């Protein structure tokens, strides 16, 4: 599609970001049908940028098409979550190992540590704030690893499982925060093996908590 036929890139990106946030923050529940006319009016855009944003969300796996072809917020089965978490374990352990091999400024890592320590020592952040932070930290690790493909794969998988992430499971808050500190400390120490092992423990523990959370809801 030519640029003349499609929506302005900035408008599409803005629409995409707004819809993505609505899904990730639980404002649009799984199974919600994204009727073009209604959502175009709600977001104050024409159908073209909305349609292009929905197409991007389908690519990300956050939206699927119903049997009638109507786009709807994805429902992720337990078997899909188990598979996604297995692949995340492989990719994110490698990302942590590679990040520990990179000589980089400690400033960003220390900022993440300070935020975690503030979370632990003061009032617990709200669910959205914590989920946003968790996503940002995991993506910073993936980005530092230096592989664009690895980063994109991890991003897609994190987006798909975010609804079941630690921000939704109160019992995982403090253990998850301390596991994040262990990962960061290993990266700062430039210890690839320790970073990989710390990430493996983190993913394994998150997996068990997520599966227990799903079974409680079923």
TrEMBL record:
<dbReference type="InterPro" id="IPR000524">
    <property type="entry name" value="Tscrpt_reg_HTH_GntR"/>
</dbReference>
<dbReference type="GO" id="GO:0003677">
    <property type="term" value="F:DNA binding"/>
</dbReference>
<protein>
    <submittedName>
        <fullName>Putative HTH-type transcriptional regulator YdfH</fullName>
    </submittedName>
</protein>
<dbReference type="InterPro" id="IPR008920">
    <property type="entry name" value="TF_FadR/GntR_C"/>
</dbReference>
<dbReference type="GO" id="GO:0003700">
    <property type="term" value="F:DNA-binding transcription factor activity"/>
</dbReference>
<dbReference type="InterPro" id="IPR011711">
    <property type="entry name" value="GntR_C"/>
</dbReference>
<keyword id="KW-0238">DNA-binding</keyword>
<dbReference type="Pfam" id="PF00392">
    <property type="entry name" value="GntR"/>
</dbReference>
<dbReference type="InterPro" id="IPR036390">
    <property type="entry name" value="WH_DNA-bd_sf"/>
</dbReference>
<dbReference type="Pfam" id="PF07729">
    <property type="entry name" value="FCD"/>
</dbReference>
<dbReference type="InterPro" id="IPR036388">
    <property type="entry name" value="WH-like_DNA-bd_sf"/>
</dbReference>
<keyword id="KW-0804">Transcription</keyword>
<keyword id="KW-0805">Transcription regulation</keyword>
<feature type="domain" description="HTH gntR-type">
    <location>
        <begin position="9"/>
        <end position="76"/>
    </location>
</feature>
């Amino acid at each position: 599609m030519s640029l003349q036929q499609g929506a302005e890139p900035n408008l599409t990106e803005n629409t995409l970001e707004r819809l993505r946030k609505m899904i990730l923050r639980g404002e649009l529940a799984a199974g919600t049908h994204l009727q073009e006319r209604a959502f175009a009016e709600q977001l104050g855009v024409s159908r073209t940028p909305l349609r292009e944003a929905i197409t991007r969300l389908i690519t990300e796996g956050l939206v699927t098409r119903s049997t009638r072809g109507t786009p709807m917020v994805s429902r992720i089965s337990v078997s899909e979550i188990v598979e996604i978490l297995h692949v995340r374990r492989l990719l994110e352990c490698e990302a942590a190992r590679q990040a520990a091999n990179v000589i980089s400024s400690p400033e960003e890592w220390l900022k993440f540590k300070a935020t975690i320590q503030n979370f632990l020592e003061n009032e617990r952040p709200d669910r959205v704030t914590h989920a946003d932070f968790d996503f940002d930290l995991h993506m910073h690790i993936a980005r530092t690893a230096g592989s664009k493909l690895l980063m994109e794969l991890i991003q897609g998988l994190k987006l798909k499982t975010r609804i079941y992430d630690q921000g939704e499971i109160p019992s995982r808050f403090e253990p998850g925060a301390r596991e994040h500190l262990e990962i960061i400390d290993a990266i700062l120490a430039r210890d690839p093996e320790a970073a990989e092992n710390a990430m493996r423990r983190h993913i394994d523990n998150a997996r068990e908590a997520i599966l227990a959370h799903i079974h409680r809801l079923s």
